[in-house]
Amino acid sequence: MTDRRLRYFEFWRRDPRRDVDDEIQFHLEARVADLVGTGMAPDEARRRATAEFGDPRVVREQTVAIDQRIMRRGRRSEWWLDIMRDATVSLRSLRRTPTFAITAVLCAALGIGVTAAILSATYSILIRPLPYPDGDRLVAVYGENTVRGYHGSNISWPDYKAWRDGTRTFSSIGIWTWTTATLSDDASDPERAYGALVSANLFPTLGVHPIVGRNFTVDEEPPGRDAVVLVSNRLWQRRFASDSAIVGKRIMVDGRAHTVVGVMPPSFNFPDRGDIWLPFAVTPSQEEHGNRGYAGAIGRLKPGYTIEQAKADLHVIDAALVREFPVDNHGWRAELTPMREDLVGDLKQPLEVFVAAVALVLLLVCANLANLMLARGTTRAREMAIRTALGASRRYLTMQLITESLLIAALGGVLGVGIAWWGVRLLRFAFPNQMPPFFISLTLDAPALGLVAALTIATGILFGTVPALRASRADPNAALREGARGAGGSVHRSRLRSILVVAEIALSAVLLVGAMLLVRSYRNLAATSLGFDERGILSAQLALPVESYSRARAKAFFDDLFARLRAEPGVTVVASAQGIPFSGWNIQSEARIEGTPKPKPGEELITHYQYVTPDYFKAIGVPLLRGRWFTEADHDSLNPVVLVNEQMVKTGFGGSDPIGKRLRVGGNTDPMETVVGVIGDFRHYRLPQPMGPAVYFPYAVYPSHQQTVVIRTTRADPHTLTTPLRNAVRALDPRLALYQVQTFDEAVSTSLWRQRLQGNVLSIFALLAVVLACTGLYGVISYTVAERTREVGVRMALGATRGNVLALVFAQSGRLVALGVALGLIVAFFATRLLGTLLYGIGATDLTTFISVPAGLGVVALVAALIPARRASQVDPIIAMRSE
Amino acid sequence: MTRPADLLQGTLDLLILKTLSWGPAHGYAVARWIEQLTGEALRIGEGSLYPALHRLEEREWVESSWQLSNTNRRTKVYRLTVKGRKQLRAEAGAWTQFVEAVYKVLKTEEQPA
Prior knowledge:
The complex is a heterodimer of chains A (884) and B (113).
Chain A: H1 2-13, H2 16-37, H3 42-53, H4 56-96, H5 98-127, E1 138-145, E2 150-153, H6 157-166, E3 170-184, E4 191-198, H7 202-206, E5 212-213, E6 228-231, H8 233-240, E7 250-253, E8 256-263, E9 276-279, E10 296-301, H9 307-324, E11 332-338, H10 339-344, H11 348-379, H12 381-389, H13 394-428, H14 446-473, H15 476-485, H16 491-526, E12 537-543, H17 551-566, E13 571-577, E14 588-593, E15 605-612, H18 616-620, E16 624-627, E17 641-645, H19 646-653, E18 662-665, E19 673-679, E20 694-698, E21 706-713, H20 722-732, E22 738-743, H21 744-751, H22 753-787, H23 789-797, H24 802-831, H25 847-873, H26 877-882
Parallel strand pairs in A: 4-9, 6-8, 15-20, 17-19
Antiparallel strand pairs in A: 1-2, 1-10, 1-11, 3-4, 3-7, 3-10, 5-8, 6-9, 7-8, 12-21, 12-22, 13-21, 14-15, 14-18, 16-19, 17-20, 18-19
Helix pairs in contact in A: 1-4, 2-3, 2-4, 4-13, 5-11, 5-13, 5-14, 6-9, 11-14, 11-16, 11-22, 12-15, 13-14, 16-22, 16-24, 16-25, 17-20, 22-25, 24-25
Chain B: H1 9-20, E1 25-26, H2 27-38, H3 49-58, E2 62-68, E3 74-80, H4 82-107
Antiparallel strand pairs in B: 1-3, 2-3
Helix pairs in contact in B: 1-3
């Protein structure tokens, strides 16, 4: 201690100015004395000494500057020495208690690791700049209908044109819509590529330019001139072997030759992971005001304008459109969303929940570590007392204990980086096809690592300070005396530990409630009656090129394909539809029942519709409730027939028998369709979206070029049919590409990925929380039992049974658990509101959850108390009383 | 006359190290020794001794401590460190070589062939 204090004195208390002044003063005085000694007059001697010395102010300034440099360096090395020394002492003391050290480090690592993983994922999803220049000025524009309450709807070309030409707040707005196309050439197998139709100004609006070649031009927008294509870097590398002369080459897109005009940059993805882009060619049907068939628009705000101003700007234009086209534009206007929000979409709310949950986990970890430190403090009370008695200052001991906490946190932080790295990689698997959306790069990068460092320090200080202050405040006298008797604890310390355990149990109760609500929501969704049988079905999409297939040829092709597939062993039904359940197929139109008056704008009967082959509903297991199925004979376009679902019967026909009644879907001028059958409702849209009215047409009447083939099989793994399916297609036409080959099971399960992720993440957190809380409880109970060994001995000597002792210990645990659970439930009651729309089929205060969590947690916690309780009950009274 | 500022910095350092090699001393004593030994020939501005001493301390060639003088005043006493002794030996060798070389040139009567 002594040399340490001296060094403090050296570098902290010294004043270099005074020292230098003293030194100069001494020199001058000594010189004067010497000169006077040789017989010089004092005045003369003083003058001579000063002259010899030179200007003392210059000397002083130079010297002081040097001294200050020395001091700064000294302080720095002093500081390092202190840290290294404290760390060495801490490491030594941790090595003496390996169980404590390992438990504490693992605990810190888990807390820091999961927090860093979740926060770094949150950062990369919600905060990291979008991969577009000035991405925060990009706005996604969709349609909304204020009368019908639609949001995020498609838009129409005339509306877009009005926005583009009339806006004062956007520097540009481009339109786009989804597309897929088959690429075929002699070099490689045909393949289906996803991408978009884009207006020439869309990519410049995004601020992205091809790395090779050019963007589309306005001249390429009219139909006929639009045989040009932009390809992604991925596609260019994979399919065209990074051919440097790609620009100007002609490739077959949907059987029609297109000229490649450019290759986009490697990081570019639109929309999501697109591979090809074609010009948005404007045909007469697109000019119709009622044709809202285009995905959306993207605008770039002029500098200085806000999205609110842009909203007002476009809404003025929309109001004029509504006045001009009162029927087609009734209720419609632009819906503006910042591009990032549009991309992040549904992910924002679960992420917020994860961050809140992980904060609770970290708090719990800190409470648990503090508890461990306190327990250790108890056993070290004697050591501290002796060191205090020998002259260690309170400040020094406190610093020493905090260093120990920081060391544990630092070791935990290093391990935590590993856990976070692993966790972030694990998160990738949470996304469908293990492929997070393009704008999310799940990596542990500099901001995340900085966060780990900050968390480490915060954790260390948070769990280290309280026990450290407490330990250093201990009265050495009392501790030494008590220590001699072997009961080194204080009431205060054990009360603090009890409070921490109560907090831990409360936190884990909150997490358990959250986890259980989300898991139950997922279960509810997964258990939703789908209305079809998703087992044993393989589906695949196929698109025939319009140029080489007339409608009759298309029908002949599919009939031929189905015949081949039916010959495969294990195949029971082969059918097709335009869009299968959960595929995102969503074509709706207005339906009019014969004999009903023309509805007012906004009150039309909107129905889902599509064309299916006769066996489609048999293939997916949907029952016929009334009437008859389609037959092969239902191809008479002069006497058309349809099937409707129950929803249609309810909303369209008021529940009355619709068989034989007629209706019309869309603006058809053909004869009205006669209803011949009613099928059961089934979930066509992704859960939790409900199904509405639907009308189904026979495929034979209007054979479409793009179909989803559905094969029901008795084979255990429907995927074994993929090769026969491919072979059958290739045998008929080698230019065709199959895509979206998947089982119905997969389609259903993928569609619930987000709900499953929510449930899984919170379950992991809750499990972690319960384990931590139980460790804490176990520690506290063990400690009290050890402390009360003597008392237990006396009680047993006086006639208490083992049962009495067990009850005594359990009563103590029970009080802590009950208090913790009660507090936790109160917090959870309010906190679960945060879950809001993430819940499905249950309320935020679901009774089952609020009953089973305390019950379950209580049982687990009491089991954790069982071991120390048993130990107490097995105390031999004689040994216990003699042990002191 | 040689003025303090004209004296080469390295030379002053070397002289200080040499004087301290005889034993610990305060700044005034160092100044007196240098004056006595060099006479009028190497008269230094005594004030410039102090920045030099402190710089040597910064380089850890000398170390210092505060002591009471015989007149009972607080004085700062400097002592050569092991590192400083090494430095003295190296610099003294280099200096001697340099001086001998210059001297040889000056003593030469004839222009070399």
